[in-house]
């Protein structure tokens, strides 16, 4: 018997801005990490897990790992879609996967970030904070 993991994701359309490109009009590679941030922000707004929610609960979530693979370039003026997927984990972590698709729906870039929870004293949380476990229960994870 196979168990099917619930998939929670968000899709957001973004337009490449002039200041994100190099002299050839191609998006500089460092901006893809910023696009991942845009994806996390959109996910949080859509699913009720914003940075303000986390901060108001007394926690911060620094990134401890990020990966990014590039397949095709994005250029100034193009729009693209970022799909952000929450990866459920039993650990006290926020894991997100990202896929960026160009206007032709071709995969441009994929990546992942991992964030941990620190309490107001800067201590690493080994267990899910109560507010996060409540969110996970609400999302049926």
From TrEMBL:
Pfam families: 4HBT_2. PROSITE patterns: 4HBCOA_THIOESTERASE. Keywords: Hydrolase. The keyword Hydrolase applies. Coiled coil: none annotated. GO terms for molecular function: fatty acyl-CoA hydrolase activity. Belongs to the 4-hydroxybenzoyl-CoA thioesterase family. NCBIfam families: YbgC/FadM family acyl-CoA thioesterase. This is Acyl-CoA thioester hydrolase, YbgC/YbaW family. It comes from Chryseobacterium populi.
